[in-house]
Write a structure and sequence with these properties.
The chain is mainly α. The protein contains 3 helices and 2 strands; from the N terminus they run H-E-E-H-H. The longest helix has 36 residues. The model has no long low-confidence stretch (mean pLDDT 78).
Length: 101
Amino acid sequence: MRSLVLLLVILGLAVGLVPAVIHVVEQIFLVSDVEYNGVYEPLRGVEMSRAYETSVDLSFEARAGLELRRWMVVLPSVGAGMGGIVALLLHSRGFRLSRDK
C-alpha cells in the first residue's frame, strides 16, 4: 500500500509540475525577440519577445484568450496539489482501513 501511495505522489508531481517547469525554463532560456506582425495596428513592426507577441495575439484574436492561457498554467498545479492531498489521505486513512479487517 505504501508503494502505491508513493507511486501516486510521484505521478501527480510528474503530471502537474513537470510541464510547469518546462514552461518556465522555456521562458527564461529560449527568449527570442521578434517583430510583431499581428492584428493590432499600432504595434506592427515593434520588436518584442515571443511570449509577449503571443499574449498580444491571444488577447486580440481569441475571445477570452488570456484567461484561457492563465487557466492552462494554473490547472497542472491544481492537479498536482489535489494528487498530493489524495496521497496524504490515502496514507493516513488507507492504512487504518486495512488494519481494521
